[in-house]
Amino acid sequence: MGQLARTGPDQSLPFSDRDFEALAALAHREFGLSLSQSKKPLVYSRLSRRLKARGIHSFPDYLRILDVPGESSERLELISALTTNVTSFFREDHHFEKLRSDCLSREIEKIRSGKRFRVWSAGCSSGQEPFSIAMEILGSMPDANDYDVKVLATDIDPKIVSKAKSGRYSLEELQSIPDEFRRKWTKNCNDGMGEFQVLDAVRDLVTFGELNLMSDWPFSGPFDSIFCRNVAIYFDQKTQQKLWVKLSKILAERGFLFIGHSERVSGDAVNVLTGVGVTSYQKSTLFDPKNN
Ligand SMILES: C[S@@+](CC[C@H](N)C(=O)[O-])C[C@H]1O[C@@H](n2cnc3c(N)ncnc32)[C@H](O)[C@@H]1O
Fold first, then answer.
1. Residues lining ligand 1, CB < 6 A?
2. Residue 249 domain-assigned?
3. Does residue 7 register a pLDDT over 60?
4. pLDDT of residue 290
5. Residue 62 sits in the same domain as residue 123
6. CB under 8 Å to 176, separation ≥6 — which residues?
7. Inside any domain, residue 88
8. CA of 3 to the centre of ligand 1 (A)
């Protein structure tokens, strides 16, 4: 038996290298997650709590449960335990500025003449990212709801998608929304819970859904912009490169891809995605963005 990890709240569960490798292989196969050996203590700490909650007495038993067809909900608990949902409104606000100034502004008249406009928040977590996109769109185009404008927001984690759909946040979570937008598009629920609600004008622009980015995508775009930020960070390089190619195919010509601050597009996608700012790329198969 391999080395046992003894970190974490429950010291009584042996966790062999073999257990870790089996979990890492499953997480890679199902979700594209890359778990190096250095993550073993973290995985132990997160999952031992889960085993305890379900009354499971060993990691081999847990692996057997994960293998049972129909235990897909436990696999989702696994990814929930292994990834983080950290997010905030207007995180890396330069992406929202670029959406407004370089992507939306050139399209507004065309949208009012019937053109569709689509933005995808891929890995949307609890909704702050797609709602920030929707607020930015409404800031430039207050009548956006009267036209074919939609923000698609997806995440693998059903619990976080359901929280996102509620559009409810604490006052603290609202602090990173620009004052004007916060006053205009959020209201105090006055329900004794200290919660605030994102208003319907913003929520109506956003459609939420569950989606594993590693599975087939049930839509074909094209998207005018895609926000896929702080998600690929969990994937190994080969998986990331496949994702960049897939995202570039579903982007409209001249569409924008925004990624996380510690992520970089690499591999075949660099042939069609040109860097046009910090962690911002533009699709260019027919034109040179430098002369755009
Ligand atoms: C750190 S959050 C990023 C949220 C937001 N994009 C941002 O940058 O603020 C990462 C999100 O990616 C989701 N995620 C991880 N692996 C995924 C996968 N294979 N498919 C879809 N979503 C995934 C997680 O559930 C989590 O909500």
1. 31-32, 79, 83-87, 91, 123, 125, 129, 155-157, 160, 212-214, 229-231, 234, 260
2. yes
3. no
4. 61
5. no
6. 88, 89, 90, 91
7. no
8. 31
Q: Are 145 and 203 within one domain?
A: yes
pLDDT digits (tens, 9 = 90+) for 76-135: 888 888 888 999 999 999 999 999 999 999 999 999 999 999 999 999 999 999 999 999
Count: domains in the chain:
2
Q: Whose CA is nearest to atom 2 of ligand 1?
A: 85
Same domain, yes or no, for 197 and 69? no
Q: Range of 36's domain?
A: 17-82
Res. 32: pLDDT tops 80: yes
Nearest CA to ligand 1 atom 11: 123
On whether residue 1 sits in a domain, the answer given is no
Residue 257 has pLDDT above 60, yes or no: yes
Question: Has residue 4 got a pLDDT over 50?
Answer: no
Same domain, 175 and 274: yes
| For ligand 1, mutation pick of 128, 161, 226, 231 (most atoms within 8 Å of CB) | 231
CATH code of the domain in which 176 resides = 3.40.50.150
Task: Give the pLDDT score at 82.
Answer: 87
Pocket test for ligand 1, best of 129, 156, 163 (most atoms within 8 A of CB): 156
203 and 78 share a domain?
A: no
159 and 215 in a single domain? The answer is yes
120 C-alpha to ligand 1 centroid (Å): 13
286 C-alpha vs ligand 1 centroid, how far in Å?
A: 31
Mean pLDDT over each residue of the chain, to the nearest integer:
92
